[in-house]
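Section 3.1 - Work completed
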Amino acid sequence: MITPELALRLRAAGLEWSPASGDRFVLAGRDMDGEVFVVSELTIEVHDGPGGRVLRFNGTTEWALDSVDVEAAVWLPHEGQLRAALGTAFRSLEPVGDGWAVVTADGARHVDVDAERAYARAVLSLLGR
């Protein structure tokens, strides 16, 4: 899984998120940085309201959350979403020592400890960051 810091860099680089069921996210800066949430129709749903898009928390009284603006959430895209963001720039995913390398059309190798992080680094490069 990518780190919240890497996810913030992706957001700053322009990777857009349209929340969907199964998406993972964190709420940074709320003393819950270690809690990973998952959008699900049963517990966390996306709602378009008059004030904008929010994530509604259903039955999560232990966190005392009702809903949060989507902008407050930090999306942690998974491997398939990152590969889709690369589009035709993606060439291959290769094991490298204890990690993985994503090779892009320009021949660049983006290496990290797991495949998702390697994909994230390749997307950052594609977005010019």
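Second construct:
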Amino acid sequence: MDNSKRNVVVTGFEPFGAHTINASWVAVQELKKLGLGKDVDLHVYEVPVEYQAVQSLVPSLWKQYHPQLVVHVGVSGMATTVTLEKCGRNLGYKGLDNSRFCPHSQCCIEGGPDCIDSVIDMESVCKRVTASGLGVAVSVSKDAGRYLCDFTYYTSLYLSHGRSAFVHVPPIAKPYSGEDLGRALQAIIQEMLNMLDRAEEKIHCQHVH
């Protein structure tokens, strides 16, 4: 791995239920074609829609890549915009996954806080991406839905002390194509990285004085 480059990991989910093609994985594959610029090594993964798989995969991604940022992408049948999720929640996981399993405790991390916020200011990312004239509507949400999306996000936020993000996309062609969603992810993640850079510069300046 080239150390001058930053690692960014982006995940989508496998098909589940009515989503025989999962728009999140289509969007992530489109993003992979576009890339995040020459300074970023982009690693993409398709995540099984299984609680136990998430519990082993998410920590292994952090360990393997030491990424500057991990962005999980999921599909929402109710979404009509690309939606930035502000936080992940620990409790209330009752939905059965693709292997007909759900956590007995109905929570992600026993003893973990009820809710963890991302360090990224999603309102600000939303404003900037919207102002860039992307042609894809972006919105912000505080509820990632208490299924595998929320479970994955919380697990990632817990491990990374908030250096994770979650983006919900609508199903393909309702109204956006896979290419549109890929472009939207590219713009959103580049904005998130810019934001992390600005925050780090600020911290660095404070230490210098």
